[in-house]
Task: structure prediction
Amino acid sequence: MDDQALMKLAEKAAEKSYSPYSHFSVGAALLCSDGAVYTGCNIENVSFSVTNCAERTALFSAIADGRRDFVKIAVIAFRHDGRIVLTPPCGVCRQALLEFCSGDLDILMTDGHNITEAKLNSLMPSAFCEF
Ligand code: THU
Result:
């Protein structure tokens, strides 16, 4: 699947966003090595810290389905006015992704015009990974 098609699936997932507090709708699409895709949206809560980001929704859904073979994740975010904002995964999502993906995971982000790509390990250097 090409990057644009994966981003389109993330965009579709953002339509399901439950974000009455931030009005910031995020969608993510996680691609597995066999071409399967798991999508997710952000799900907010009146107790803000309970909120789950789109990336973790997609990741947890894939893990719950027995998947461990991730290649890339596309992320798209819409402001309340519909404008797309380039949104790298938050630190919590980076840590969650690192638990199951190599630092080589490609993270695709978009500003609505272009798709930018970054490796997980470039966004999360010196991560805690052992105890
Ligand atoms: N959010 C995500 O879903 N993914 C990110 O990478 C950044 C932030 C969500 C969490 C919250 O619902 C809203 O965006 C505003 O922070």
Remarks:
- The beta strands are 25-32, 37-41, 70-78, 106-110, 115-119.
- The helical segments are 3-14, 54-64, 91-100, 120-123.
- The pocket of tetrahydrodeoxyuridine is lined by residues 19, 22, 24, 26, 42, 44, 51, 53-55, 87, 89-90, 93 (CB under 6 Å).
